[in-house]
Write a structure and sequence with these properties.
The protein is α/β, with parallel strands linked by helices. The protein has 2 domains: 196 residues, 3-Layer(aba) Sandwich (Aspartate Aminotransferase, domain 2), CATH 3.40.640.10; 138 residues, Aspartate Aminotransferase, domain 1, CATH 3.90.1150.10. The structure holds pyridoxal-5'-phosphate. The site of pyridoxal-5'-phosphate has 13 residues, from helix 3.
Length: 393
């Protein structure tokens, strides 16, 4: 048969519609077709906007990136395939052999691993310092130091970093100050307003918020740095899938509502836990018995967040009894889910540390970190109260 275009393999065009969808269409297409080589030239040369190949960029990623830019108060950020991909885009995309980087001594576990294992393997030296101790951070600076990477609130002990002090030091010494804002989220804290040069988010947590997507975001104040990180992310394949971006956007539409609800409940839960005889200590930045309460008020204002840590009176046996008794709560090492999740650092995130190193951080067998979700506050405090009583009674 001659010229039977019906037998060419390509999808049919979408039907016309005078009305528009209210939800962002999902664009899973890996490639985009152009009219002519000239048209492609125009695109590559930036004279017209257009997509070519999904690893290089696609509409669903850009929609999420622009929403994140608005939340963080910055322009030109990049969505990555995970929070760790964002951390990698910063560290591996911007540093080179011979450089030195300072990290917080309580960074996210995989960030610590990058600092301890992978950067040194590439000839990039690293020092960890307590972000609440300005003298220690200043003392770690060397002539070849290029960057400082910190989190605002430490995991799982919820201590505050001296962000303003580190920002001033970074400016003074001409260092890039990078803030991983995952724990605090842009509702709790906006690093760019405090002098950070680069902000990182794991959208996997509160921003996407439903534990069904792994995604990250990074943005620099300097567009040249965004370009370098974008090229590195595209080259090394750190870029995200359209479906993940589509899911993340859906989650982000309710981010503020979820954050406010979870935070309000966290305050109630923290106060409730503090009154229980089976609880030795409660750590919540919004409580005035928190060791960094003044700094927390300065940095976070009315938004101390949805994370609460507490120390159960007991050992591993009581910890086991508590997670068994805490019916309906997920014992799972994540945070920012719609449901409350419990994490036990001694057996998960901090298991690689010696018992002594854990004890130095205050992480005993009774230590739990709670990511407060969207449950009814009354029900949640009852579940915690009953489980603590059952475990320690
Ligand atoms: C979870 C997390 C990450 C890593 O994010 P992924 O999306 O899991 O790769 C980085 N930093 C912090 C503070 C986190 O909590």
């Amino acid at each position: 048969m001659k010229n039977d275009r019906g037998s060419l393999i390509r999808p049919d065009p979408l039907p016309d519609s005078a009305s528009a969808p209210v939800v962002t269409p999902l664009s899973p297409s890996v490639v985009y077709s152009s009219d002519t080589p000239d048209a492609l030239d125009a695109q590559y040369e930036g004279r017209v906007q257009g997509y070519t190949y999904a690893r290089e960029g696609h509409p669903n990623a850009d929609v999420v990136a622009r929403r994140m830019d608005r939340l963080e108060g910055v322009e030109g950020g990049i969505v990555t395939g995970s929070g760790m991909a964002a951390v990698s885009a910063v560290l591996l995309g911007l540093l080179k052999t011979g450089d030195h980087v300072i990290g917080g001594n309580q960074l996210y576990g995989r960030s610590l691993r990058l600092m301890a294992e992978d950067l040194p393997r590439m000839g990039i030296t690293t020092t960890l310092a307590d972000p609440g101790d300005m003298a220690a951070v200043a003392a770690a600076i060397r002539p070849e130091t290029r960057m400082i990477l910190m989190e605002v609130v430490s995991n799982p002990t919820l201590r505050l970093a001296d962000i303003a002090g580190i920002a001033a030091l970074s400016r003074d010494k001409d260092l890039l100050f990078v803030v991983d804002n995952t724990f605090t989220t842009p509702r709790g804290f906006r690093p760019m307003e405090w002098g950070a040069d680069i902000v990182i988010q794991s959208l996997t947590k509160l921003l996407a918020g439903h534990s069904d997507v792994t995604l990250g975001y990074v943005a620099a104040r300097d567009p040249a740095l965004n370009d370098r990180m974008r090229v590195f992310a595209v080259t090394t394949g750190l870029t995200p899938s359209p479906f993940d971006c589509w899911l993340a956007e859906r989650g982000m539409l309710t981010f503020e509502l979820r954050y406010d609800r979870a935070q309000a409940t966290a305050a109630v839960l923290a106060d409730h836990l503090a009154g229980l005889p089976g609880v030795n200590q409660v750590l919540y930045p919004g409580r005035d018995d928190h060791p960094d309460h003044a700094l927390a008020s300065t940095l976070l204002g009315p938004n101390p967040g949805n994370m609460v840590s507490f120390v159960l009176n007991g050992d591993r046996a009581q910890a086991n009894a508590f997670t068994r008794a805490a019916r309906g709560l997920s014992f799972a090492p994540t945070l920012g889910d719609v449901g409350t999740t419990l994490s036990h650092p001694a057996s998960s995130s901090h298991r690689a540390l010696s018992a002594q190193a854990r004890a130095d951080l205050g992480i005993t067998e009774g230590f739990f970190r709670v990511s407060v979700g969207l449950e009814d506050p009354q029900t949640l405090t009852e579940v915690f109260g009953a489980a603590v009583a059952e475990a320690t009674g």
